[in-house]
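Justification of computing resources. Each target in the renewal requires a structure prediction run like the one illustrated here; the chain below, 749 residues long, is used simply to show the kind of job we budget for.
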Amino acid sequence: MAQQINTSGFSSMKVDQMSDQQIMQIWQQFQTSGVSETQAMNMLVQKGLNPTQVNSFKKRLIQLQTGSKSKFTTQNLIKDTAGFLRDSTWVIEVPSLKRQTNQYGFDFFSNPGNEFEPNIRIATPKNYVLGSDDEISISLTGLNETTLSTKISPEGNIQIPYAGIVNLNGLTIEQATQRIKYKMKSVYPALSSGKTNLFINLSNVKSIRVSVIGEAARPGNFVISSLASFFNVLYLCGGPAQNGSLRKIELIRNNKVVESIDFYSFLQKGILDKEIRLEDQDVIRFPVYEKRVYLSGQIKRPAIYELQEKETLTDLIRYGGGFGDSATKDIAKIVQISDKEKKIRDISSNDFSFYIPHNADSVFFEKILPRYSNRIILSGAVYRPGNYELTDHLSLSQLIKKADGLREDAFVNRGYIKRKKIDSERELISFNTKEILSGNESDIFLLKEDSVFILAKDSLQDVPIITVAGSVRTPGSFQYRKGIALEDIILMAGGFTNDAANHKIEISRLEKNTADTLTNKLIDVITVDVNTDLDQQKNKTLLQPLDYVFVPRLLNYHPLGNIQIRGEVLYAGDYTLERRNETVQEVIKRAGGITPYASMGDVQVFRKGLRVGTNLLSEASKQNEKFLLQPDDSIYIPRNEPFVEVKGAVFNPQILSYEPGNLRSYIYHVGGVTDKGNLQKAYIQYSNGISKKIRHFLFFRNYPTVLPGSKITVPEKSSTERKGLSIVEISAITTILTALVSLASILHL
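Resulting structure tokens:
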């Protein structure tokens, strides 16, 4: 028979924090109990060990066995270490989370990681009923000192030295204490006088078998500690199934229902109304529910609740945690299911305590309407705009006083009230604010949802601006104020930049022309000289609304830009243009001139990423028709390479030393053109980036000149390229040749 394994604490076990000795002790327990390696892993998982920790445990075992200082013996040796690591059959034992449900109370049983086991370290309950296999500890203190530990036999007896056999079967701890004391008085007379005291405790408890039946998630037989309570077993069996009841869970003992438990008492208050001790062969039954009601809407805990026979709508609301913050509490909307169709009922709050919901009812509480029953809205030029309470006989003047009065910029000649009448007609009521506050006009009494508007003067007219642009630090638009001068607006714009032409500031001013005919001139332009210190001048220039102030940039106080020079020069780098008409030759001179290896005839100039066709050795360049540079141009002076590269569809592509000759001679030196080569489309790319191809006229071909550093490329023929001449082309050529022969004959004659 397999030995009992101590698996307490497995769920919280951290393998990485365990010593080698602890790992071996656990494994030795499994080996001595007779379980297989796979069964051992299953037991670890069943007791709550995390799957990650299971794998870590297996790896630690293998490391201990295969290590150079292994402490494994032949009794606990793992023979197939590779198979042991690969074995994953224990995964089926990993508990899965139950599906979340909206049935109240069911989620309590959904988490398999929760521990819900009896606490065996508590003091022995006085009502604990003793039985076979219980082990008790008998202690005498006082005049006599002794301790005795004994186990109750299957017949319910214990053997006390010198006192004889005592039957304790079916007795509580309190009753057993009195019986043992009576038996031991003859041996220890001091027990009668009280000079010796007797204490009895459980040192080891028996196991009992409890059956769970009915609508349980995991019905079956459970072997548990005799200290386990009714609620321990509820958790072990996974709680109720889909149709199980939580309100009338039955405890059956000796074929009689001895208790009926309402689990809602624990869920609602955390109170266990009855401390129910289980006995061997007890039966727990989950009956089918009788009434469930769906509670939703503006409620704190919407869910499906199980109600007992006489529980009312008030009880249902209490189970749901009460109303939500925005709930309409005066009426409940209830949808009921009749024999053939659904029907809806409105239950008043006065009847909540009397109305008993039916099975499958849906109770819904609506959200309060998004409107106010006594709100007045005040906005505009008052010190405290916002929402105000509509009190009895609240007037317009009283409302303005509540808002601490009008602001200085209030437009007091006119205000208005937006009002919505009972028949949904919208009305606008205008008033003279000044006259009402002075009492010269009748006050206006306000109604619910009135919106009062007190306008500001600025809201009734355009706000004039002045725009500043050009060489100032923060250009933009600024509000016009009477008396603002040119120096003031420049100061507001952050002052001049370093390149500002302050002697030539332009003010563009609109002409206020009231004529009814179109005129040509609309703007007056004024040029002003302003001191860079922005000192206030005697004859200051005052600005007007909508003026546009432009500060131009100094004509010559800015860099022209940079150019790049690379390649065969002594000091390559980025150079700033000195003059607007600076040439390539001058920049090369500034860069120290060319190196002995430079090829001036192949100098390349690029502008905006594109090559500019230049030839510094041409006749135009020699006659001082210089190439002028622009900002961001780049110059590249290539190296003089006395070689010619031949590549493409030739038999032996290679680089040849330069010798005067034409394109065909170079192709001849590399073995000629392959069958796929197209000599007619061959071309030369020179060092300066320019490319030239063979020119054709009738049967004549003009080959471009080959220069040092050239690259000759022979492309391949296209798959769609036509071979030979067409009949039309041959006919045309024949006609031309005939005409030439005839012309030659005539001239000869």
